[in-house]
Design brief:
single chain, 234 residues, alpha+beta, Mannose-Binding Protein A, Chain A, 8-stranded mixed sheet, 8 strands, 52% helix, disordered N terminus, binds calcium ion, C-type_lectin/snaclec_domain, C-type_lectin-like, Accessory gland protein Acp29AB-like
Amino acid sequence: MILIFEGILILALWHSIDNAHRIVVGAPAPCDAYCFNELIPLHNTIATLNHRLSECETMQSVNASARLDKIDKELKTHKVRLLANTQGISRNRKNLSDQGKLIEKYKRKLRKPFVQIGSGYYYIEDETTMTWFGAVRACLRYGSHLITLNNQEELDAIIPRLTKNMYWTDVNNLSVDELVSITTGLKAEFLKWAKGEPNGGSKEECVSIVSPKYEMHDYPCRTKNFFICEAYEE
Ligand SMILES: [Ca+2]
Ligand SMILES: [Ca+2]
């Protein structure tokens, strides 16, 4: 009897085990814990990658921001330099313009109205008086020389154009005893003294022509007189 019961118990247990086995094999895979444990490393890796990605994005953002700030500063610096250069160019243009106006002014001043009289060209200064030295320099500035009267014909051509009492010529005896032309450095080739002239000695060492006949007088060089400039022969 006991043997029968044990057999039945064994059969029941076997059946239970078999059923249990069949229940386990046929059931939906109950691997949550297992899978979870298996996925933990992958999850951690993904988390690490996400963290690094976030860091990279932050760093890129910071770097990009820093680069933009640097570019912005450089642009501002270039803008300031460009503005300074533009202002410098404007100043230079104004200076050039002012210098150009000054040059034109001097050109106008130098472009005295030389007129042809006989075979030569002359500028008769009958507005401003100068010493003989000043007259020499003025004619040089005009690209000419104080008049060299070469002959009576030249003097006769000039006389009708003269309106003042006295004009300087280029004749003097400042450095030597004889009367020379400062233009040529040679002895004056034409002298036509007025009556009683020359009479000044060492006090009158420059020669002028005096109305009404515009004959020659020796006269103090530092006296201010009108003068005549003669263009160089071309
Ligand atoms: Ca002459
Ligand atoms: Ca005299």
